[in-house]
Amino acid sequence: MALGGDCYNPCRRSFLHGRAAQLRVGRASALRYFSVMGVTTFFNAEAITTESKTNVVRAAWDGLVRVPGGKRVFTHLIGRLAPYTGTMGAVVQDLGDGYSRVTLADRKAVRNHLSCVHAVALANLVELTGNLALAYSLPDDARFIVSGMSLDYVKKARGTITGECRIPPVESSLKSEYDVPVTLRDEGGNVVVNGVLKTLVGPKQI
To answer: What tens digit of pLDDT does each residue of 142-161 get?
Structure first.
């Protein structure tokens, strides 16, 4: 089948080829970055929690966000670390010390029988958003695990949903429990879910 439908559309074809070229450039830049950094351990979750002497999430984001397509490459890498989370199709839009913003498009794969975003997909978005804000802000010698979650489903979630988390940066790898609040909003800015992650932080076993 021709691009753009049954009729051949050279303008559409040219645009798509241009986008494909941009994505190839972005992927090549990302690969060069990882080659220089040597962050092949990013594909191994155990490496982040037990082997790496740096905060790999922070290093990867700070490097990739500067290259074309870097946000999607970073999101793909997160999906490799947590395959179930990767099936959602969420995209990391912003990340910093104690802050994250992640979007989830409303599509059939994440909907329930009422044609709104499924409660489990929303819970997954809460966890991803909170985990990224925490992970980015951790000291190099710290790791974490979620020990509990509370969710308040405020209204039906339709359209693109944005998860946002703001927490004080974690300053120590000493064993501690943190509350990580996450808010999900729809395209109109309405709150659809308020969530809190109970998260345990401790030192890496290097």
So the answer is: 999 999 999 999 999 999 99
Residue 185 is encoded by which pair of tokens? 């909003």
pLDDT tens track for 16-69: 344 444 444 444 544 454 443 434 444 455 555 555 678 889 988 998 988 888
CB atoms within 10 A of CB 170: 21
What is the C-alpha to C-alpha distance for residues 199 and 131, in angstroms, rounded to an integer?
9
**Residues 104 and 88 sit within 8 Å (Cβ to Cβ):** yes
**Residue 83 has what pLDDT?**
80
Q: Classify domain 89-206 by CATH number.
A: 3.10.129.10
**Positive/negative CA dihedral, 191, 117, 43, 149:** positive
Contact 123, 135 (CB under 8 A): no
**DSSP E strands, 142-188:** 142-153, 161-166, 176-185
CA dist., res. 42 & res. 30, Å (int): 13
CA 53, CA 109: separation in Å to the nearest integer?
A: 38
Domain ranges of the chain: 1-81, 89-206
**Alpha carbon distances (Å) from 204 to 9, 51, 135, 138:** 55, 8, 13, 11
Give the Å distances, CA to CA, from 132 to 18, 94, 164, 169.
32, 10, 10, 12
